[in-house]
């Protein structure tokens, strides 16, 4: 007989064998014993977590000759027939390849016929989210009120694509990612049953690489068994998963901590020579420091450690590297990972990142020296103040609050171009503002298409509030976003050129933070009050116009006699 993959040979045949889904199997077992079987179920969750297997086990338990039972006996004719697929009353349908209306109409026409060999006819529709809208509509009424002898079990990895009208007619069970501990437990059981010799740490690597899917773990185990000689070793597991060994990760972390750039770059060269992928390398290094941070802050949390095995070297490094350094390491690596996505020379970005990581320790030491110097100056000043007090000189208490107020003004805030905004307001028209606002969404979309997503994100909390025939005022919710946008000349030129493309007019943007906009606008109105004539004075006295100003603001009101 031809060789079968491990995940096929060891497919669960009872609820007890379904790993890591006790919240689902316990509920189904109680329903079976109490004979409270629903007419339709929806099993959703990540791939390889046991959805289809649970559906088949449920079909066997319902039709078992010993029913009502919590587990199928797997010995009676019904259980054996459903297992080997010889009973036609349990129908498995792959919705990915049978997603049309005609296939569902065929189900609807045949569903009224009684089962031949077992009490219940069970339809298992896998990847049900692949059905077309027409197919869902054809299934709708049948799914809501099927004959008493029919049960539907729908399985999907993407429940958000299923219409709510279908979901509301089913009992929904959400399968979760299986923990590495449960995956490893199941792998050990399968290895012992199959006569596979292994190293325990090798199974740990495979279990973590599977990312919550037992089927993926068993596929990787199949590869590792084929690759190994007699025993599945750690090196075999690292080879088939493409992961980086703990030894190399510890060596990299040590070289970064000790500011050893040469060792860090040599380690990188060794890994790339072994065929490790640059993207996988940067991901493993991020997860290494992430695990180190979680180990330091929450060592007792189950499944908190994702990629790292807590050995002696790792524990020693975790004790010597501070949380602040780890934050900086992860920040540098995360930025590098984003930059690598848009480059064909990923190795260069990794080399630069490693050099920067090695230099962070130097920066930390300099920072520590600065703090010590500052503390020394404060101590000397306190001694001088104490000496002055002893000589009869007192420090004014009124000056202290003033000094406290001046102290926070250490940063250089954004300077609003008030004069230019006044010029725009003098020539502002409603038509120009409406034209810019009507094409604002198109402008943002074109910015994203031009690979300026990070810059375009600055405009998420911004809106045009006034416009003349050649410029407009852009109000930002946050001052920092305003400063970043207005200091980027390339970004401002892109906005102007795009607006010119879609409106035919060359507009220039002038930014202002939201907290300063009202002040500048009121100042402009106050200075131009005399030129506004009697209409403005009448507007101040008219209660209707005053109420309108409160509702929508003065810049959206046009007063006409």
Automatic annotation (TrEMBL):
Residues 37-179 form the AAA+ ATPase domain. Keywords: ATP-binding, DNA replication, DNA-directed DNA polymerase, Metal-binding, Nucleotide-binding, Nucleotidyltransferase, Transferase, Zinc. Its EC number is 2.7.7.7. It catalyses: DNA(n) + a 2'-deoxyribonucleoside 5'-triphosphate = DNA(n+1) + diphosphate. The keyword Transferase applies. GO terms for molecular function: ATP binding; DNA binding; DNA-directed DNA polymerase activity; metal ion binding. GO terms for cellular component: DNA polymerase III complex. It comes from the Bacteria. Residues 392-412 are annotated as: Disordered. Pfam families: DNA_pol3_delta2, DNA_pol3_gamma3, DNAX_ATPase_lid. Gene3D superfamilies: 1.10.8.60, 1.20.272.10, P-loop containing nucleotide triphosphate hydrolases (3.40.50.300). It is an enzyme of class 2 (transferase). The keyword Nucleotide-binding applies. SUPFAM superfamilies: P-loop containing nucleoside triphosphate hydrolases, post-AAA+ oligomerization domain-like. InterPro entries: AAA+_ATPase, ClpA/B, DNA_pol3_clamp-load_cplx_C, DNA_pol_III_gamma-3, DNA_pol_III_sug/sutau_N, DNA_Rep/Repair_Clamp_Loader, HLD_clamp_pol_III_gamma_tau, P-loop_NTPase. One of its GO terms (biological process) is DNA-templated DNA replication. Belongs to the DnaX/STICHEL family. This is DNA-directed DNA polymerase. It comes from Heyndrickxia shackletonii.
């Amino acid at each position: 007989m031809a060789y079968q993959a491990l995940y096929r040979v060891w497919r669960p045949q009872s609820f007890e064998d379904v790993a890591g889904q006790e919240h689902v199997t316990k509920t189904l077992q109680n329903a079976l014993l109490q004979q409270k079987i629903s007419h339709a179920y929806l099993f959703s969750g990540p791939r390889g977590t046991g959805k289809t297997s649970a559906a088949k086990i449920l079909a066997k338990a319902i039709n078992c000759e010993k029913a009502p039972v919590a587990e199928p006996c797997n010995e009676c004719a019904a259980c054996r027939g459903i297992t080997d697929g010889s009973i036609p009353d349990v129908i498995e349908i792959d919705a990915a390849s049978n997603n049309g209306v005609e296939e569902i109409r065929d189900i609807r026409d045949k569903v009224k016929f009684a089962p031949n060999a077992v009490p219940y006819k069970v339809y298992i529709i896998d990847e049900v989210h692949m059905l077309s809208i027409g197919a869902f509509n054809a299934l709708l009424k049948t799914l809501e009120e099927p004959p008493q002898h029919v049960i539907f079990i729908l399985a999907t990895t993407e429940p958000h694509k299923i219409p709510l009208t279908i979901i509301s007619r089913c009992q929904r069970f959400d399968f979760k990612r299986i923990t590495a501990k449960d995956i490893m437990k199941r792998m050990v059981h399968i290895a012992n049953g199959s006569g596979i010799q292994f190293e325990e740490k090798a199974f740990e690597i495979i279990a973590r690489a599977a990312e919550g899917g037992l089927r993926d773990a068993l596929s990787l185990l199949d590869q590792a068994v084929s690759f190994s000689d007699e025993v599945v070793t750690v090196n075999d597991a690292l080879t088939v998963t493409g992961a980086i060994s703990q030894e190399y990760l510890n060596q990299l972390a040590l070289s970064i901590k000790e500011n050893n750039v040469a060792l860090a770059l040599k380690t990188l060269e060794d890994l790339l020579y072994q065929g490790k992928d640059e993207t996988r390398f940067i991901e493993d290094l991020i997860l290494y420091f992430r695990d180190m941070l979680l180990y330091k802050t929450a060592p007792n949390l189950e499944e908190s450690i994702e990629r790292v095995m807590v050995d002696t070297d790792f524990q020693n490094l975790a004790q010597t590297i501070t949380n602040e350094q780890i934050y900086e390491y992860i920040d540098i690596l995360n930025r590098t990972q984003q930059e690598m996505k848009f480059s064909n020379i990923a190795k260069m970005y990794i080399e630069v990142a490693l050099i920067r990581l090695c230099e962070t320790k130097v920066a930390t030491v300099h920072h520590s020296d600065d703090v010590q110097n500052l503390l020394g100056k404060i101590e000397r000043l306190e001694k001088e103040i104490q000496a002055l007090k002893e000589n009869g000189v007192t420090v004014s208490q009124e000056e202290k609050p003033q000094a406290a107020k001046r102290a926070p003004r250490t940063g250089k805030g954004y300077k609003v171009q008030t004069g230019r905004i006044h010029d725009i307001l003098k020539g502002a028209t409603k038509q120009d503002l409406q034209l810019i606002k009507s094409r604002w969404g198109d402008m943002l979309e074109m910015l994203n298409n031009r690979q300026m997503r990070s810059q375009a994100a600055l405009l998420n909390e911004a809106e045009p509030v006034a416009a003349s025939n050649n410029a407009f005022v852009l109000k930002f919710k946050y001052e920092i976003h305003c400063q970043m946008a207005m200091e980027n000349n390339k970004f401002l030129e892109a906005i102007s050129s795009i607006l010119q493309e879609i409106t035919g007019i060359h507009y220039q943007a002038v930014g202002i933070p939201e907290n300063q906009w009202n002040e500048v606008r009121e100042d402009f109105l106050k200075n131009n009050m005399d030129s506004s004539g009697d209409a403005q004075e009448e507007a101040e006295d008219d209660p209707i116009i005053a109420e309108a100003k409160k509702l929508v603001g003065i810049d959206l009101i046009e007063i006409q006699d």
